[in-house]
Amino acid sequence: MELHEYLDTLAEQIRCKKARPMIQEEIKNHIEDQAQAYRKEGMGEEKAMAKAILEMGDPVEAGMELDRVHRPKMQWTLVALVVLLSIIGMIMQIVIFKTGCLSNEENVTTIQNGFIYNSILNTIISFCVIGAACILDYTYLAKHPVALWWLFCFLQVVGSIFYMEGPFIRGFQLNYYGFTLMVPIFAAVVFRYKNKGMAGFLKCIGLYLALVLIKMFTQLSYISGMLELTISVLVVLTVAVIRGWFGEKKAGKLALIWIPALGAPALIGTVAVFFNDKIRIMADYQAARIQALFHMDSWANYQVLAARAEMEKATLLGTRRLPLTTLPSIQNDYIVTSMFTYFGIIFTLFVMSMILFFICKAFHLSIRQKNQLGSMMSIGCVMVLLGKIVVYVISNVGGVSIFGQMSMPFLSYGLGNAVVNGVLVGLLLSVYRNTDIVSEKISKPKYIFRFPVEKV
Amino acid sequence: MAVDKSLISGSTTMLLLKLLSEKDMYGYEMIETLQKKSNNVFALKAGTLYPLLHSLEERGLLTVYEATVMGKVRKYYGITKEGKKFLKAKEAEWKEYSLAVSNVLGGVVYGIA
User: Fold this and answer.
1) Are A241 and A254 in contact (CB under 8 A)?
2) Quick one: A94 and A114 in the same domain?
3) Neighbours of A307 (CB within 10 A)
4) Contacts of B58 in chain A (CB under 8 A)
5) Model pLDDT, residue B109
6) Which of A142, A296, B45, B59 is surrounded by the most beta carbons within 10 Å?
7) Distance from CA of A13 to the nearest CA of B (A)
8) How far is A447 from chain B (nearest CA, A)?
C-alpha cells in the first residue's frame, strides 16, 4: 500500500469532509517520522516507507474510530429551548393581535389575520435563519473581520442618513440591528489581533473608537444598541486579555479599558443632567430620560409608571387581560409585561427562568469551547443577547429605564428581531457543531513569490 | 456520546495521560517513549493511538496545539486540569485492582504488613 492510498482509505471513513485534511496531515507526519526512523536503522527508502505504513494497521478501522470523534454535534438542549421560547412568544403575539385589533376599524379580521400571519411567518423565518447560520462554517467570518467591521461602520452611516426610509429595512433598523451583528464580528477582530501584543490590543480599541466617532458625527441614536455593543465589546476584550491573547501585563490593559468605560458614562450623565442647556451632547429626549431617573414623578417616566401599575395588577395565574390602553405597541415593547398580566406571574417566571437557563448554558459552553475563535464569538453572542434581555426585562417590570427597550430575544414581534436573534443563536450552535471539525488556522497565502533583487 | 472501545480498556488511556502529565508530546514521540519505558512491552499501534488521542481531546482531557520543530509542523498534545483529575482517579482504580489481583495470586504485596 502506498502512502496516499493509506491516507485516502482512512479519510474515506470520516464522513465529515471538513475534518479530513487536518487528520490526514497529522497521520502523514507520523508515517514519515516512522519511515525516517527505519531509514536510520539502515533500511532502503521504499522498504522503510512500506514498513511504516504496515505498522499503522488497518486504515478502515482507524478511520471509523476517528469518524466517531469528528462528527458535527448539535446542542439539542439549546435548540429545544429556542423552539419552545419562540413558540411561547408567538402565542403571546397572537393573543395580543386577537384582542388588540378589536377596534372600530373596518376590515378588522383582515388586519388581525395579517398580523397573525406575520407573527407565524417571522417565527418560521427565525428558525430558517438559525438553521442556515448553524450549518455555515463560522470561521468564514474570521477571514476578513476588519473589512467586515468597516463595512458595518459604513452601514451605520447609511442607516443614519436614511433614518426613516429604506426599501426593505429602515435606516434606524439598520443602525440598531447593525450594532448587534457587530458583536460577533468584533470577537473575530480580536482573534485576528491575537498574539500581536499591545499593538494588537490598541488596534482593537481603535476600531471600536472609530465606530464611536462615526456615530458622533452622524447621529448618536439608539444608545441602547450602542450600549449593548459596548458592554459586549468590553466583556470580549476582558476575556481576551485574561486569556493572555495580548501578552502578559494584564492588569494595565484591563485598567485601560475599564477606567474609561466606567468613567465616561458618569461624566456624560453628569453633563446631561446639569449642563444640557449649555453643552448639548445629546438629544433632549436622551437628557430627559437621564434627568427622569432623579424625578420619578416626571412626565418622562410615564411608561415606567404605567408598567409598574400593570405589574401590580398581575396575579399568580393571570387575569387574561392585556395592558392595551396603558402601554404602547405591547407586541414589540411590552411583551413581558403582557405575559405577566395575561398568563400570570408563575407562568412568566417559568419562561424567564428558561431564558436564564439558555443564557447560562450558552455562556458555559462558550467559555469551555476549545476553539478560541469560536469561544470568543459565542461569548460575544451570549453577551449581546443578555444585554438585550436585561434592558428589556428591567423596563417591562417597571424598573428605571433610560435606554429604550428594542426587542426581546425569542419573544417580541418583528422580522428584524427574528432574523438578528436567529443569526446570534445560529452562530452559537455553529460554533458548538464544529467543535471537533474545523481548525482555526487562519489561512495564509501559500506561495510567496520573491524576486531576487540584485544590488547595483 | 458513543462508547469508545479503546476507552473501555482504559489502561491505554491511563498510560497516555501519565506520559503527557510529564511533558507535552506529539504522537510519534508517545509511541516511542511508551515503548522505551515499558521495555518494549507496550507497542502501541498508531492506528489505535490517534483515534484515542482525538477522543481524549474531544472529552477535554487533552489539549492540542501546533508547534514548528526543526522545520516540521507537529501537533502536540498536553494534559488538561480535567485530564489530571481523570488520571488520578484511574491510577487509584488501577492500584486497587492490582492489589486485588495480587491478593488472589498470593504474591508479595507491598504496603501491607
Assistant:
1) yes
2) yes
3) 26
4) 69, 435-436
5) 52
6) A142
7) 12
8) 17
Q: State the angle between helix axes of A415-433 and A108-135 in degrees (0 to 180), rounded to the nearest 10.
A: 20
Element (H, E) at B75: strand B72-79
In a domain, A174, yes or no: yes
User: Strand, helix or coil at B62?
Assistant: strand
Residues of B in contact with A69 (CB under 8 A): 51, 54-55, 58
Number of domains in chain A: 2
Instruction: Give the end of a domain, one of A69, A86, A107.
Output: A69
Same domain membership, residue A87 and residue A50: no
A115 and A133 together in one domain? yes
Domains of chain B as residue ranges with CATH: 5-105 (1.10.10.10)
Are both A165 and A148 inside the same structural domain? Answer: yes
Q: What is the pLDDT of residues A300-342, one digit of tens each?
A: 678 888 888 899 988 999 888 888 888 888 888 899 999 999 9
Asked if B45 has any chain A CB less than 8 Å from its own CB, the reply is yes
Task: Say whether B50 and A436 touch across the interface (CB within 8 A).
Answer: no
Residue range of the domain that includes A301? 76-433
Q: Is B109 exposed, middle or buried (0-12, 13-18, 19+ CB in 10 A)?
A: middle
Nearest CA in chain B to A52: B46
Please spell the DSSP secondary structure of A338-371, one letter per residue: HHHHHH-HHHHHHHHHHHHHHHHHHHHHHHH-SS
A94 and A57 belong to one structural domain: no
pTM to 2 decimals? 0.83
Which backbone phi and psi does B77 adopt, to 5 degrees? -115, 140
Confidence of residue B43 (pLDDT cuts 50, 70, 90): confident
| Domain termination site, one of A42, A69, A96 | A69
Same domain for A285 and A188: yes
**pLDDT range class, residue A130, cuts 50, 70, 90:** very high
Instruction: Summarize the confidence of residues A220-247 as an average pLDDT.
Output: 88
Residue B64 parent element (H or E): strand B62-69
User: What is the rounded distance in angstroms from the CA atom of residue A390 to the CA atom of residue A405?
Assistant: 9
- Whether A280 and A335 map to the same domain: the answer is yes
Tell me: pLDDT of B5 over 60.
Answer: no
